[in-house]
Amino acid sequence: MAPRLRLLTWDVKDTLLRLRLPVGEEYSAQAQAHGLKVEAAALESAFRQAYKAQKQKFPNYGLSQGLTSRQWWLNVVLQTFHLAGVQNSNILDPIANKLYEDFSSAKTWQMLEGAESTLQQCRERGLRLGVVSNFDRRLEDILAHCGLRKHFDFILTSEAAGWAKPDPRIFRQALQLADIAPTQAAHVGDNYLNDYQAPRDVGMHSFLLMGTKTQDPFPRTVPKEHILPSLPHLLAALNLLEGSDPKH
């Protein structure tokens, strides 16, 4: 029997919202506003290195190691500038704090094409919507500032949950919040492991958004009807799912 979906959960970054500018450009512009000249390309490379190291050393914002997500991000900014050759922490502290605030505001983010209309159509379809995102406490404000918060029944970040995708516990917590069985829920996102395989491991359905960013191709085992070339393709994919074998 085909499933009748009641809940649709969403990833946010690069699924509904993306950064307007590359991180290196944002960091470089903020440094320049504080009288410091650092090339955007150097900061972009340094950020990738600092972010990767911080995630490995302090997973999920270091919450289990006594950090706050704000401290976690301020450390990433400081390390980024250090790797780019700036050692003066006195000048970096105000830059780091301003960047933390800027990344909470709508001016740093833009909606992916079709995001608002797709969410609206999903609600009109009678679906409950929620967010399941590896993000910090700023996400609620970001979604509100971008005009998307009103579409969601709940926002579950990895900071609030205490577990980050692909840990199945964050999806189980979302299902508990909605009081909905996994077979009646689907997740939408752009990362194969976090947004496609992990929800399926708890019995949910899932869809992968191809998006525009460069990434590893999805495994060939993902059926083409589960891959969305763009967000507006979701409605047809839901129709197909609800009229077909749920094991497909």
UniProtKB/TrEMBL annotation:
Signal sequence residues: none
A Pfam family that the UniProt record links to this protein: Hydrolase
Spans traversing the lipid bilayer: none
GO CC entries: nucleolus
UniProt-listed InterPro entries: HAD-like_hydrolase_domain (IPR051828), HAD-like_sf (IPR036412), HAD-SF_hydro_IA (IPR006439), HAD-SF_hydro_IA_REG-2-like (IPR011949), HAD-SF_hydro_IA_REG-2-like_cap (IPR044924), HAD_sf (IPR023214)
Protein family according to the UniProt entry: Belongs to the HAD-like hydrolase superfamily.
Protein's name in the database: Haloacid dehalogenase-like hydrolase domain-containing protein 3
Annotated organism of origin: Phascolarctos cinereus (Koala)
Gene that specifies this protein: HDHD3
